[in-house]
Amino acid sequence: MDFCCTPLFEGVVGREAADDMAATFAALGDPARLRIVSMLAAAPDGSACGCDLEGPLGLAQPTVSHHLKILREAGLIEGERRGRWVHYSIVPERLEDLRAALATSVSV
Questions:
Q1: Is 50 exceeded by the pLDDT of residue 106?
Q2: What's the pLDDT at 99?
Q3: What is the set of domains in the chain, with CATH numbers?
Q4: Which of 8, 33, 56, 63 has its C-alpha lying 20 to 30 A from 14's C-alpha?
Q5: CA-based Rg of the chain, rounded to a whole angstrom?
């Protein structure tokens, strides 16, 4: 079969991947959660205790915990218990997946 022009939709995100990514982007759609991801990415050892995020965010512990839970459920961060505290870090592969999905291979 001959095509009149180059296929426009080659390599686009599929429905299942789009559903998954939309939920992840929704998790990043809140300013506090976006700041948490930024803070964790900038943390000197790559992780931070949830209690260390309260002051810089200007939020109470229950609110910070709520935001961390949403980010964990989206697969963007993971927590590691250290004594009675939980230290959170970025899941770099997850952020890379989002970046790659938005990258374009078209040269301008």
A1: no
A2: 82
A3: 17-23+31-102 (1.10.10.10)
A4: 33
A5: 18
